Amino acid sequence: MRSIKLTIAYDGTCYAGWQFQPGRTTIQGVLEAAIQSITGAPARTMASGRTDAGVHALGQVVALRTDCRLEPDVLRRALNARLPPDVVVLEAAEAPPDFHATGHARRKRYRYVIHDGPLRAVFRRNYCWQTFARLDAEAMHRAAAVLRGTHDFRSFQSSGADRKTTVRTVYDVFVRRGDADQGDLVTLEIEANGFLYNMVRSIVGTLAVIGRRAKPESWMAEVLRAADRRAAGPTAPPQGLFLVCVTYDMTGQPPAEADRPGYVKTDDLGAE
Q1: All domains of the chain, ordered by start, with CATH?
Q2: pLDDT tens, position by position, 82-135
Q3: Which residues form the catalytic set?
Q4: What's the pTM value of the predicted model, to 2 decimals?
């Protein structure tokens, strides 16, 4: 039995998220159907994390265990010939036999896009949150700086996923406004060793309150210290969220606990 590491991108607009759900169209469902059409055998895949309905991916990573003998790039091309046009396999590569798409991940990076122009951006509506109110992106960037480091991010976890710990380490975070013809776009990027359920969207919703000047920049630190979801801002909608990339330990061993203080078993993970 081989282990294949697939890197895929998808537009999540028309899907009920990554995870297979009977009677609903999901990314996992269409991917496994395409694999079975090639191999003739039922397929079961595991992603680095379960994205919610409407959330997109630029570099989702999927582990596939298969007896198929096709070379990885041949398999990639065959899958792309069978997948719908809003899903694409960017890369297929041999992986260690025990490759674990979730457990071996060291870091994930997400991007969130906000359109804060006064008019509806009809061609961007599936790929951003439209606030219709000008945001102070520089204030949001300064406020986000308190998130760097290892903290309890309980204030930014929505209910619906029971995690062993709400402690995570944020390695990088920034907020910036686009230039020239993208001046109405505000982008947040954040990289961490793991994310809680709706953590990125809750952070964005909180920063947007600061960006509207309804709260001071110092409020972000107060929310973080509170360790209470009720202290934070709203959860931003899903369509502005993109999973950018996942960084792996490909030695075949799970990362050390010190590297991933939020590491939990795969079956404990909810959507991010």
Answers
A1: 2-94 (3.30.70.580), 107-248 (3.30.70.660)
A2: 999 999 999 999 999 999 999 999 999 999 999 999 999 999 999 999 999 999
A3: 52
A4: 0.91
